[in-house]
Amino acid sequence: MFIPTFPKDLNPYTEADRKKLDVRNLTVANSKDKDNIRKNLIKRDGGLCPVCETSILETNEPIELHHLTGISEGGTWKLENLVLLHEACHKSVTHNEALKNELRESYNSNRPAMSA
């Protein structure tokens, strides 16, 4: 699967940058791997968002894929570097370096769930 990388300074929450990132999202969305990635992450994490520890299956909120180590920082698309988060939880992690580090450390320590 081809996954393009983008500069660190792109922010998926701004309209201008979101358009630039749409190419990557379409690549992943059209991939057969997307469903397998989500299924494996749901199985690994018990269907829970590791930030708020509530179900990602029983919600109307969008679910987003988060890289524990960003692609621009040398991260990969391997399952051990990915986690599914509620949209609001993803925004919290993206904009809070301490929370981002806590989430990364919880997975590096083989503890999928973290305290909110």
Automatic annotation (TrEMBL):
Keyword annotations of the record: Mitochondrion
Pfam family for this entry, one: HNH
Transmembrane segments: none
Keyword Protein biosynthesis part of the UniProt annotation: no
Segments forming domain HNH nuclease: 36-91
InterPro entries per record: HNH (IPR002711), HNH_nuc (IPR003615)
Name of the protein in its database record: HNH nuclease domain-containing protein
Organism from which the protein derives: Ulva pertusa (Sea lettuce)
Upper lineage: Eukaryota, Viridiplantae, Chlorophyta, core chlorophytes, Ulvophyceae
Gene giving rise to this polypeptide: orf116a
